[in-house]
Amino acid sequence: MRIIRLRWAPFKALNFFGVILARKGVEIDETMMRHKMIHTEQMKELWYVFFYIYYFLEWVLRGFNYKAISFEREARDRDWDWDYLEPGNDWSRKPYAWREYLWKP
Q1: Is residue 13 a part of any domain in this protein?
Q2: Does any domain span residue 87?
Q3: Disulfide-capable partner of 9 in 23, 26, 41, 86 (CB 3.0 to 4.6 Å)?
Q4: Residues of the domain holding 66
Q5: How many domains does the chain divide into?
Q6: 88-101: per-residue pLDDT in tens?
């Protein structure tokens, strides 16, 4: 993944169409990189544009709490596991896995 450093940004790091925009000085460790890679897979499934539309709608419906969004919950739950993004394993990510988080408390 390509990383672009910004002098000033209101966020630590943001995945924008598969490119990471990160504030200067923010360390992008393995966990954050996997988190962003999971988001990239989610974006591919929804043809990028629909990902952002759905992300925004869910953010509004969940009371502007981004941690409650299904995309974020999946990425946070699995950002420690490198095998999650490897195809062909029984424990690897299934297509549209973020849907499992839509109704979980």
Answers
A1: no
A2: yes
A3: 23
A4: 29-101
A5: 1
A6: 888 899 999 999 99
